[in-house]
Design goal:
The protein is α/β, with parallel strands linked by helices. It is built from 13 helices and eight strands. An eight-stranded mixed beta sheet has the order 1-2-4-3-5-6-7-8, with helices on both faces. Helix 4 links the parallel strand 5 and strand 6. The longest helix has 15 residues. The radius of gyration is 19 Å and the shape is globular.
């Protein structure tokens, strides 16, 4: 939510540098798993680094909820936790984020006419980008933060032979009951907002209640109490209410939110069966105090697939990858260095 907030909250990652140009993969009609079709679907992406002669150093990095490829690309570079001097990195805009094909930018399926899609559909669009546009038949790694990590879990079971390594960060293989409580509460708040007008608005509404719910869960009570004084609370509160979700189109937010709610790599079946499909070596990074994406399903799945795990334990909660980058970055760098 609120790309500007997320940009700030992952500020340890987002160091100023030249961001590579945005490119588009034209996928034409994208058939979704529910049978619907997104017409004239274009997927945004950026590339950094150089693909080696063996084409063995490509890394895919999908965007987080409401995020975009430019925000991710700003965190990368020579000598950083994902080193552009070593890897050919593809940062991709997930379906519905307002850059790739989305309710807000579709001319023939605008707004609520834009079909509902899933995390699997996001991954399928990325697979087509990698294989059809970039002509790659294998990836060294897939990784991502939050919804990008959720897509990483899906990549592991949808295309198990396609990558050597996978790094889901503060993500989950399926939504816990608490996750579903959070996301369905946001959905209820969005749809019941009078300014939303059943998706027929002319200017995207701030969705203030959605913004407040989201911010309450993005960190922890201790983090908020330690970083916002009682005297400064009103200004903090008013800024959320005023700015709300104006950083993202409301119908775009709705469709990505629905994709999150429906996420389950077991597809209603057994996680044991899903685990048996995984062939990549996996590093699961979880935040023990995460109030936005409960860490228990990811840690349980990590045991099933004998994955390496890294626990972040700061009161930053879901923002822990930024707050604890000094702890996380060297582990990721070492993990990616595997042949």
């Amino acid at each position: 939510m609120l790309s500007a907030f997320v940009f700030l909250l992952f500020s340890v990652f987002l160091r100023a540098q030249t961001i590579p140009p945005l490119q588009y993969a034209d996928l034409g009609d994208l058939k979704l798993e529910n049978g619907s079709v997104i017409h004239d679907c274009k997927v945004g992406y950026r590339t950094q680094g150089t693909l080696n002669a063996a084409k063995s150093n490509a890394l895919l990095y999908p965007s987080w909820f409401t995020g975009n490829s430019g925000e991710i690309a700003a965190s990368l570079g020579p000598g950083k936790y994902v080193d552009t001097a070593k890897y050919f990195i593809i940062t991709v805009d997930s379906l519905g984020n307002g850059v790739s094909c989305s309710p807000s930018n579709s001319t023939t399926q605008h707004g609520t006419d834009f079909p509902q899609f899933s995390i699997r559909d996001m991954v399928y669009s990325e697979y087509r980008l990698v294989t059809e546009t970039l002509k790659l038949q294998h990836l060294h790694a897939v990784m991502g933060i939050s919804m990008g990590g959720i897509q990483t879990f899906q990549w592991m079971v949808s295309y198990p032979d396609f990558m050597d390594l996978a790094i889901p960060i503060v993500a989950t293989p399926q939504m816990s009951s608490y996750d579903l409580l959070l996301w369905n509460t946001e959905l209820k708040a969005l749809e019941s907002d009078p300014a939303y007008k059943d998706g027929k608005y002319t200017q995207t509404p701030p969705l203030s209640l959605v913004a407040l719910i989201h911010n309450m869960n993005l960190s922890t009570p201790d983090f908020r109490a330690n970083h916002t004084t009682r005297e400064g609370f009103q200004q903090y509160f008013d800024e959320i209410v005023t700015n709300g979700d104006r950083f993202m189109d409301a119908n775009d937010y709705l469709r990505q939110l629905q994709a999150l709610i429906g996420h389950d790599i077991a597809h209603g079946g057994s996680l044991y069966d899903a685990a048996n499909k995984v062939k990549a070596q996996v590093l699961v990074v979880s935040a023990t105090q995460d109030h936005m994406v409960n860490p228990l399903p990811a840690l349980g799945f990590a045991k099933l697939i004998h994955a390496q795990t890294l626990l972040l334990d700061s009161d930053c909660g879901h923002m822990s990858p930024g707050c604890e980058s000094g702890k996380m970055d060297p582990v990721i760098e070492q993990f990616l260095s595997q042949p």
